[in-house]
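Example 9 (inverse folding). The structure is encoded as follows.
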């Protein structure tokens, strides 16, 4: 089985629990704080790891205290990236989690978001058949080299999960991505705001017309909708109590990619992904401990 190339950031998540986000000038006490590995690419790769599917985490780790934390914890997991250490310092992501479980991100971007063309020469394309890409990195103008590399390998299946950043990417960037016929993964708000369509069905169809490939839309407690060339439908969610939503979308697309690689049809892959993301929101942070993943009854 060939590798999934996971392109994107690995960051330190500083998770802060508080009753509500403060208004300007308001003092708010927090009641919990923790640190863990995070970042869209890392979260996706960790879900792929759980499924036992081979992958390459293609994520820069530079200098500074956050880079040191990342290296230490990746080494403990025996995970490495082929990218040599850049001289720029890594940033971090402050994840503010309210009592409702909803999260707000405050990001300090650093080395983890910047790629250079020469790094892609370190990859053996013959060992890769699919690619995960998120939207954060594509906001950086100097990351056009990512698109350059993917355009050189039209044989790759591209899974693109841009998140809310889809509304901030340039038209030229989106046109290049759409030309790669990617599988698109978004949530309800993101897909309707980008397409301007009021219904999920119309929004997914509008995106399909641009990509000519599958569109997956997560709907929270309503499950997930999909639109393909031959069918569309909604896969129900798993009822659960919510601690926080950090990493829910990342785990969902990571599970979908893994299950498709293992031979599941798309509706079945989404059904399993719904179970994984339900487990994620019931656990603090973005990743699942190994024992929690192993306890999921697929």
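The amino acid assigned to each position is listed next.
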């Amino acid at each position: 089985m060939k590798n999934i190339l996971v392109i994107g950031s690995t960051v330190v998540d500083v998770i802060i629990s508080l009753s509500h986000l403060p208004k300007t000038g308001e003092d708010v006490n927090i009641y919990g704080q923790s640190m863990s590995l995070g970042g869209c690419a890392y979260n996706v790769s960790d879900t792929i790891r759980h499924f036992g599917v081979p992958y390459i985490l293609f994520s820069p780790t530079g200098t500074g205290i956050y880079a040191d934390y990342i290296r230490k914890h990746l080494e403990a997991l025996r995970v490495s990236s082929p990218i040599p250490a850049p001289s720029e310092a890594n940033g971090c992501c402050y994840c503010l989690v309210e009592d409702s479980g909803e999260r707000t991100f405050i990001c300090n971007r650093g080395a983890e978001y910047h790629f250079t063309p020469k790094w892609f020469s370190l990859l053996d394309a013959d060992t890769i058949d699919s690619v995960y890409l998120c939207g954060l990195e594509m906001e950086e103008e100097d990351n056009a080299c990512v698109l350059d590399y993917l355009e050189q390998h039209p044989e790759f299946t591209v899974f693109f999960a841009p998140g809310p950043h889809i509304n901030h990417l340039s038209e030229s960037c989106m046109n290049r991505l759409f030309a790669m016929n990617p599988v698109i993964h978004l949530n309800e708000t993101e897909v309707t705001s980008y397409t301007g369509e009021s219904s999920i069905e119309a929004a997914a169809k509008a995106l399909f017309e641009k990509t000519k490939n599958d569109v997956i839309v997560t709907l929270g407690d309503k499950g997930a909708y999909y639109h393909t060339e031959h069918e569309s439908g909604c896969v129900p969610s798993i009822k659960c109590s919510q601690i926080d939503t950090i990493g829910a979308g990342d785990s969902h697309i990571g599970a979908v990619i893994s299950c498709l690689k293992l031979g599941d049809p798309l509706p079945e892959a989404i059904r399993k992904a719904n179970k994984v993301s339900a487990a994620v929101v019931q656990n603090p942070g973005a990743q699942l401990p190994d024992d929690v993943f192993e306890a999921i009854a697929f």
